[in-house]
Write a structure and sequence with these properties.
156 residues; mainly beta; six-stranded antiparallel sheet; 1 helix
């Protein structure tokens, strides 16, 4: 079975429901995965928007997710630790910085793509809370056993 990531809230390439955006309750969507590679000890998830006008906007960084996890529940707390994992900082073109999930909030116009990128790792990263996307990507080097991605869209 191939390593895959999905959500009961939206299909691959589909529209992300309003409740998971800044126009709604800004709840993290539920996520499910299966087929993690043998030897997986932890997961890391990064959600970004490659369509942001001034560069990629990071919407969620969560890492050291336990290796036996099969997904993440909807509406995780925006705290340093949740679901047995550590949360990092989201950031965007205006350099805002928030702990935990920060839902889609694009300018009016063409819907943006939101990439949910999950990595299966051979060990927890051991980074402190509030790490950035760059901290997590650097720590993951040499530890990635497999990757899965889910893309959703949102427009205003």
């Amino acid at each position: 079975m191939a390593f895959s990531l999905s959500s009961p809230a939206f299909p691959e390439g589909g529209m992300i429901p309003k409740k998971h955006t800044c126009d709604g309750e800004d709840l993290s969507p539920p996520l499910d995965w299966e087929g993690a590679p043998a030897g997986t000890k932890a997961f890391a998830l990064i959600v970004d928007d490659p369509d942001a006008p001034a560069g990629t906007w990071v919407h969620w960084v969560i890492y050291d997710i336990p290796g036996d996890a099969k997904g993440l529940d909807e509406g995780l707390a925006k705290t340093e630790t949740t679901a047995g994992a550590k949360q990092g900082m989201s950031w965007g073109v205006d350099r805002f910085s928030k702990l935990g999930y920060s839902g889609p909030c694009p300018p009016p116009g063409t819907p943006h793509r939101y990439r949910f990128k999950l990595a299966a790792l051979d060990a927890p990263l051991g980074l402190p809370h509030k790490a950035t996307k760059f901290d997590v990507e650097k720590a993951m080097k040499g530890h990635v056993l497999g990757q899965a991605q889910l893309t959703g869209k949102y427009g205003r």
